[in-house]
Structure formats: structure tokens, C-alpha cells
Amino acid sequence: MSSLQDKVIVVTGGSRGIGEAIVRHCAAAGAKVHFTYRSSSANADTIVANLAAKNLSAVSHKCDVASPDDVQALIETVVKAEGAIHGLVNNAGITRDGLVMRMKDEDWDAVIDTNLKSAFTASRAVARPMMKQRNGRIVNIGSIVGQTGNAGQVNYSASKAGLIGLTKSLAKELASRNILVNCVAPGYVATDMTDKLTEEQTQAFEKNIPMQRSATPEEVATVVAFFLSDASGYVTGQVLNVDGGLAA
Amino acid sequence: MSTVAERVTQIIVDKLGVEESQVKPEASFTNDLGADSLDTVELIMDFEREFDTSIEDSDAEKIQTVGDAVSYLEKNAG
User: Fold this and answer.
1) What is the full DSSP assignment across A51-97?
2) Taking the CB of residue A115, how many other CB atoms lie within 10 A of it?
3) A102 pLDDT band (50/70/90 cuts)?
4) Domains in chain A, please, with CATH?
5) What pLDDT, on the 0 to 100 scale, is given for residue A199?
């Protein structure tokens, strides 16, 4: 396991799914984790309590990442409490699927604001403290559909494709200050988000995956931890697909 | 109370790690004091914080030297 001993790491959308796995994995690797949740306060409490029982550190923050003010306040709170911030994982994401002819403006805006704009506002907020430290890691959680597209997901896939551009630009902008920015793009992962699909849809999807199964959230979290750790000291601006070979 | 010039000088010394003697009015942040584009943005943000003011991008572009910063801040903040 890549060590994250005493590193202060913020994970957006950390109470469920891939985010929860990232929170748990980072805490187990020794990090001081701060994570946001929007509505799942019971889940957030359980995660904090589970980790505390193992003497691991996680703090939950109720935060709507679509609100730039909330995001700025969150980062300021963490930096004030911990005196540093080493890693940011822009993970918070939602879906509002629908075919384009029927997709409402609100469905587009909600997905772009939560999935893409939040990564911009959070990255902007951490840029200064990380620049002062001359050290930092930002990991954006993309999706394979940001590269392949997916019928019914013009909003979601556009937000995830947008994260790739953001990753590469930010990497170039901040590299001289030793702030490394990468994107982890999962394929099909078993979470609440994909539970919405029917058994039939899931089987059809998995048939197309060379590894013929979906990923566990932990299999994504370990890759995220690599990018947060000192093990990846010369990698920036990259997109790493964790997709069982789907887009290979 | 320090003068605007003294406060500006202190910020530049802290930010860029240069000697106070190098921070002359005609000194250019990028050409003489070794600042890159990120440093100059950070300097403007430090000036904004120190002087509790907001510097528009169009004005910030014109602040190229120590003297530019001092005269802008003397005029617009304090």
C-alpha cells in the first residue's frame, strides 16, 4: 500500500461509492482525511466512526460542492485546522441521464456544476496553499465515458471529458511548484450510481469488458492513492483508465 | 505605521526571497527580481490582502515594477 502517513487529503463526495472507498483507503494508509457529503449524513457518520474505532483519522464536512462559496470555505477550514493540505481528490459526481432531445437545461447544469465546476473551484482554492508548500497532489475522478461517450449521458460524459482538459491545463500551470495533477478514469464500477441499471443492462455492459466484470470501488481507490503518494513523484497531466481493458 | 513602500517591499522580500536592497522602484518583478507568472499573480493577491483592496486584472497587468505597485496602492488603497 502506498504510504500517505500524516498527509492531509480532501475528498469531495466521500460518503458513498468510489469516494467512500478512497476515504477509507487513504485513512488506512495513514492520511488525515477530510471528506464532503451533501445528503448522506448517516453514511458519513458511520465512516468516521468506523475509522475512529481503528484509530484512523477522517472528518466529514457537509458541503454542496456545486456552491463555490461552500468549496472555498471548506478548503479554508481544512487548511486552518491542519496547517497544510497535501492532496485533493475531486470525486463528487452525479448523473442526470436522459436522451438529448428530452434533457432539460437543469439536468445539464446540475451535472456540469457538480462534476466539473466543483473541480475547478476546489483546485483554485487549494492552489495557493499548495504553491506555498511547494508540494501538492490533485486527482480528478473522471470516467471512461469522458473518452468513449455514452448514449443518454451527454451531460455526464461532457463533464468527465472536461475534467481531462482541466487536468492537463492545471498540470502545466502548477508543475513548477511541484503540484501534480492527474485524472483517474474508472470504467464500470459497482456503486449506488450503477445500481440504477437493471440486471440485464449490467450483464450487457460486463460482456463488453475484457475482464468481464465490473471494478470494485477499492480497485479505483488504490490507483488514486498511488497518485496521492510519493510513489508518483514525476507523473502529471495523465489520465489513467481503470476500466478492465474496456477502452484499450 | 509603515509607509506603502515599506509594506510593499516587505511583501516582495517575503514572496520572492530577494534582498531588500534589490527592491528598488525601477526593479521589474520578472526581469530583475526573478518572478515567474505564478509569482506575479501571487504578489498581486498578497497586495490585495495586505491593503484590503481588489485589483482588477486590467490594472494588475500594468503593475510591472516595484514603483508601479507602490504608486498604484498609494492611489487606490492604504
Assistant:
1) HHHTT-EEEEEE--TT-HHHHHHHHHHHHHHHS---EEEE-------
2) 30
3) very high
4) 8-238 (3.40.50.720)
5) 84
Q: What is the ipTM metric for this complex?
A: 0.80
Structural domain total, chain B: 1
Phi, psi of B65 (to 5 degrees): -125, 170
CATH of the domain at B43: 1.10.1200.10
Average pLDDT taken over every residue of chain B: 94
- Nearest chain A residue to B15 by CA distance is A132
Residues 9-48 of B with CB under 8 A from A: 36, 38, 42, 45
* pLDDT of the residue at A96: 96
Grid cell 470516467 is found at A143
Q: How far is B42 from chain A (nearest CA, A)?
A: 8
To the nearest whole angstrom, how far is the Cα of A200 from the nearest Cα of chain B?
Answer: 52
Grid-cell match 504578489, residue found: B43
